[in-house]
Fold these 2 entries.
Entry 1:
Amino acid sequence: MTTKEVADKLVGYCRQGQFENAMKELYSPEIVSIEPDGAPMKEARGMEEVIAKSQHFMESVEEFHSNEVSDPVVADNFFSCSMKMDVTFKGMGRMTMEEVCLYKVKDGKISEEQFFFTPAPQG
């Protein structure tokens, strides 16, 4: 798949809330995922760690209220999009999360992802 095809598929999955399907189909087994300083898990390497990180996030959510994903911006082997989620977290209440997501595609799979957002204070 081209970078544009991967980007369009990822955005489609994310708009439907099908994050696990996106990972299984579009991520390289050697995926590297990077979060900003202050996030619960700064870096995950490999499919097993990335899925565990995603499951940890999903388990912290009490309720999803809405999810918005922008169209992707594609350049060379990279693409980015913004995501906005209205979420109630267990023990933290309802909040809106906004982030910019940057992805690198290698051999038709997402090999790296990096998220840019302001982490919520951890208590």
Note: The beta strands are 27-34, 43-45, 61-69, 73-75, 78-89, 93-106, 109-116.
Entry 2:
Amino acid sequence: MNKEDFKLKLLDLIQKTEEEIAQLSDSVQPISPDNAIGRISRMDAINNKSVNELAMRNLQQKLEGLQILLKNLYNDDFGKCAKCKADIPEQRMLLAPYSRFCVKCAKK
């Protein structure tokens, strides 16, 4: 794995994740009770807000994991499973940056 190429991928993914968070930030604002929408529409808005809050939390976790990966990029054990010391596939690190284990060890 070329660390400079991986760093560029990480930076790109961090930027995209930050943009997604910015887009969601408006949809997680409190819904005003005096809003002039019907009762059913208000319930839908509250439900959508809850879904968007979960998506926002997941994106924030992903962003934290990506930033930790970037910070640890030049450590000697970067990309190694914390349990068996096997290489963790690049795609796994990008999709699940919070995981310190290879797929095999994570299943155990």
Note: The helical segments are 3-25, 39-71, 90-95, 103-107.
